[in-house]
């Protein structure tokens, strides 16, 4: 008998869920549209067990410990067909690692293989994080899943800043920060709207998710813009000698960047407190109702799942493989740039595509199954975390390592980011989405990718990250 056929808790969950839907359905339909769910600290449907783990959760496996054969089978099947197809790339993982040790001089091959190898390992990391998230309360689970998938990005940032020599990789890091946010806002969200809209005329999402997310992103974009705007506004008046020198401008910009990084970290803590404590019941109810609308709900319940121990093992394997591939990938970036690939294209387009693969697959699958609020969480959440946590973190680590890492981005790129936030915010305003809005977001991302390929590298002296013109004059 299959393990899924032994789940006595699943029957209990189905009955409980049905009861919850019946209780919430009439009241929600009689309320004005857009009214936030209330705080229900005491629900009539109580989970079995105590603490953070919801025993009646759809993430329950019905097993304990680890069973190797079953573990490998569940991981291979993943959660959707697209993720299962990505697992075909797993043979590239040992090949990429072996080639990096055996022939590190084959720079293009090492880069290409490790670029591909990150995709299935990031997919496993996202799958294991999702399995673990289903065993937790809704909001905590989604935030934990977002954090785990962002580990790929954090590892890449830390490896890049550690391998930086004479500021050669800082432009790549800065572009990767902006590229990560743009990939989630335009590419991932656009694909969610597009594929979700193909199966229905429109999808309605809750303002509790969209308004908080877009508002936080606008504040984060403003914070990231300030150091670049400060530098660009004063670069024309800085000279090599005088009361306000170019070196002083660079020092002040770096100080402002570090102060901004600390402030953004405080904003991230407030964001966590808002989601996990003060307003957690609002988001829990929104996501519970979204889960009830899942068109693959019955299939998802019957799907074999990982145990808690197996989740930890999968996370350990994925993190190890991702970290190794990230190190080998970063080591080859200077050689790839020398072959004509622009720094900004490398950071803004190529790096985010692999590091965000797992999040994109998860979000698109949720939108396809009509879980649009979950999809929004997986699009807006990583963008917020990149802006409020990952970017400030790499600035502070660079500060500790004595690197010249700051938030003085290419002014053209940061303007693209702010405009993208405004465009996405406008699409989210009405609380509905369709395939047209999604297709437009993806097309905007393609335009940015094409433009980035032709954008000059910083060392060519044409960007705002350089010492102002005339600063080297006697």
Molecular structure report:
- By secondary structure, the chain is mainly α.
- Helix content is 70%, strand content 1%.
- The chain has a single domain (68-454), classed as A middle domain of Talin 1, CATH 1.20.1420.
- The protein has helices at residues 8-30, 68-77, 81-86, 92-102, 107-133, 138-163, 170-198, 207-234, 246-278, 280-292, 297-302, 308-338, 343-355, 357-368, 372-400, 411-428, 435-453, and strands at residues 203-204, 432-433.
- The protein has a two-stranded antiparallel sheet with strand order 1-2.
- Helix 4 (92-102) crosses helix 5 (107-133), helix 6 runs antiparallel to helix 7 (170-198) and helix 9 (246-278) packs across helix 15.
- The model is unreliable at 1-57 and 466-474 (pLDDT under 50).
- One of its GO terms (molecular function) is calcium:proton antiporter activity.
- This is Vacuolar calcium ion transporter.
Summed up:
It is found in: Endomembrane system; Vacuole membrane. The chain is 70% helix and 1% strand.
What brief labels describe this structure?
474 residues, mainly alpha, A middle domain of Talin 1, two-stranded antiparallel ribbon, globular, disordered N terminus, disordered C terminus, transmembrane helix, membrane, transport
What is the structural class?
mainly alpha
Q: How are strands sequenced across the largest beta sheet?
A: 1-2
Return Rg in Å: 23 Å
Largest β sheet strand count, sense and barrel closure? 2 strands, antiparallel
Tally of strands? 2
What is the CATH top level name?
Answer: Mainly Alpha
Q: Beta-strand percentage?
A: under 5%
What is the overall silhouette? globular
Order of helices and strands: HHHHHHHEHHHHHHHHHEH
Instruction: Just name the CATH architecture.
Output: Up-down Bundle
Family: Belongs to the Ca(2+):cation antiporter (CaCA) (TC 2.A.19) family.
Pfam families: Na_Ca_ex
Keywords: Antiport, Calcium, Calcium transport, Ion transport, Membrane, Transmembrane, Transmembrane helix, Transport, Vacuole
Organism: Rasamsonia emersonii (strain ATCC 16479 / CBS 393.64 / IMI 116815)
């Amino acid at each position: 008998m299959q393990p899924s056929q032994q789940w006595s808790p699943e029957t209990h969950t189905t009955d409980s869920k049905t009861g919850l839907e019946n209780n919430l359905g009439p009241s929600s339909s009689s309320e004005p549209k857009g009214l936030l769910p209330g705080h229900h600290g005491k629900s009539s449907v109580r989970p079995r067990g105590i603490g953070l783990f919801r025993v009646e959760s759809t993430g329950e496996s019905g097993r304990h410990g680890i069973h190797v054969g079953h573990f490998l089978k569940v991981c291979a099947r993943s959660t959707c067909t697209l993720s299962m197809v990505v697992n075909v790339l797993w043979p590239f993982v040992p090949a990429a690692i072996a080639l990096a040790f055996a022939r590190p001089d084959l720079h293009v091959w090492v880069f290409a293989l490790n670029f591909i190898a990150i995709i299935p390992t990031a997919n496993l990391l996202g799958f294991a994080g999702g399995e673990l998230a289903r065993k937790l309360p809704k909001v905590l689970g989604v935030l934990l899943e977002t954090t785990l998938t962002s580990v790929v990005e954090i590892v890449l940032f830390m490896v890049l800043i550690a391998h930086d020599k004479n500021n050669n990789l800082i432009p790549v890091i800065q572009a990767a920060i902006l590229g990560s946010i743009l990939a989630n806002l335009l590419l991932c969200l656009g694909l969610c709207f597009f594929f979700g809209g193909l199966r229905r005329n429109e999808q309605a999402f809750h303002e509790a998710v969209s308004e908080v997310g877009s508002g936080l992103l606008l504040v984060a974009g403003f914070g990231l813009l300030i150091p670049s705007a400060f530098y660009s506004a004063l670069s024309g008046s800085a000279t090599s000698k005088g009361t306000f020198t170019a070196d002083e401008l660079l020092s002040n910009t770096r100080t402002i960047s570090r102060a901004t990084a600390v402030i953004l970290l405080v904003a991230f803590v407030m964001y966590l407190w808002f989601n996990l404590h003060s307003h957690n019941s609002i988001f829990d109810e929104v996501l519970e109702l979204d889960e009830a609308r899942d068109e693959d709900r019955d299939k998802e319940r019957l799907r074999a799942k990982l145990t808690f121990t197996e989740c930890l093992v999968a996370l350990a394997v994925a993190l190890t493989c991702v970290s190794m591939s990230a190190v080998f990938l970063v080591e080859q970036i200077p050689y790839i740039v020398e072959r004509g690939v622009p720094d900004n294209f490398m950071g803004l387009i190529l790096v985010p595509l692999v590091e965000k693969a797992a999040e994109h697959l998860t979000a698109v699958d949720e939108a396809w199954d009509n879980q649009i609020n979950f999809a929004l969480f997986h699009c807006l959440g990583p963008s917020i975390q990149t802006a409020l946590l990952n970017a400030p973190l790499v600035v502070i680590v660079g500060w500790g390592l004595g690197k010249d890492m700051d938030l003085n981005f290419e002014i053209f790129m940061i303007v693209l980011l702010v405009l993208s936030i405004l465009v996405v915010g406008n699409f989210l305003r009405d609380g509905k989405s369709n395939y047209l809005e999604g297709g437009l977001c993806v097309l905007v991302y393609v335009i940015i990718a094409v433009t980035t390929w032709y954008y000059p590298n910083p060392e060519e002296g044409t960007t705002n990250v350089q010492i102002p013109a005339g600063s080297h004059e006697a």
